[in-house]
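Continuing from the previous page of notes. For each protein in this section, the sequence appears first, followed by its structure tokens. Read the first protein now.
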Amino acid sequence: MPVSAQALKDAGLQDFLQFMQNSSDAVHNFIGPHTKLWFLGDVIPLPFLKKVISPGDAFIILGVLFFFPEATQLAKRKLKEANK
């Protein structure tokens, strides 16, 4: 997964940034000039969580936040209808 060095700094993950600079990680690599579709990598810093996420992660989180309340309301309505 491509990851932005600046996003790691902004999220307060200097330790992980130093780790990646000094050794290798089987999952992550730095975004560079060779990186295609870099904007889909981990580029969104979340300093309050000390995380860096991708736009895809953000869409998944938003989908879950909107899906579960709707699903629970639908389940409650069906349960009420079944109990009538």
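Done with the first. The second protein uses the same format. Note its length before scrolling.
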Amino acid sequence: MIYITQLIYIKEGQEKVLDEFEDIAIPIISKHNGRLLFRIRPDVNAFIGECVERPYEVHLVEFETAQNFENFKMDEERKKFLHLKDQAIQASVLIEGKKF
């Protein structure tokens, strides 16, 4: 298993566009042996300490293999809607990990 954590920073006023993209992209994860473990929109009170900008959302996804994750990223259906992602997301940080 590999785990992907994504910190998502969106452009102001693009919340609905992000939701539209996620409504398409999230179901595609399972097509590639993956599973969304959680999708969080942390409240300002959820932060105890910080030295970087707070993300709008945090996703944790697991895939059986790194190749499954690559296949998800290259999924043709998902690629048709990347313009929504580009419209909504200012920046994202992707952190890859493994369970020990």
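What the second structure shows: The helical segments are 15-31, 66-73, 76-79, 82-88. DSSP finds four helices and four strands in the chain. We return to this in next week's lecture.
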